[in-house]
Fold:
Amino acid sequence: MGRSLFVSGNGVSAIAVGLVGVLTMSIQNTAARSVFARLTPSTVMTGNVTQLVMDLVDMGTRAPAAAAAAAAGRVHKAWPPIAAFAVGSLGGGLGYAHAGFWALLAHCAALAALLQLLRKQ
Structure:
């Protein structure tokens, strides 16, 4: 572990990896506003997790019925992106621990497969 795959951070391969990261972030932002518009945005996870915990507390305490109902609606909307974020974070950490930087290849392959599926539509 610990060793970088890049000789230089200014090299072509390092820049290419950075650009793939920018591409995946732009796809995530676009998908959050179009395909997954009915869900909580997945680009601001700290705020999402904080709101989820606040809503769960409202639902689990003696909050007024209207507040608990509103909280339940927000929880229903927020839990899928938060669960996906948690699973992705765990997978990324385990992937890096076992495969190092090469774990990013799984994400690149998933992106390539997604782009191929979208091209067929």
About this structure: The CA atoms of residues 112 and 118 lie 10 Å apart. The chain is about 75% helix and 0% strand.
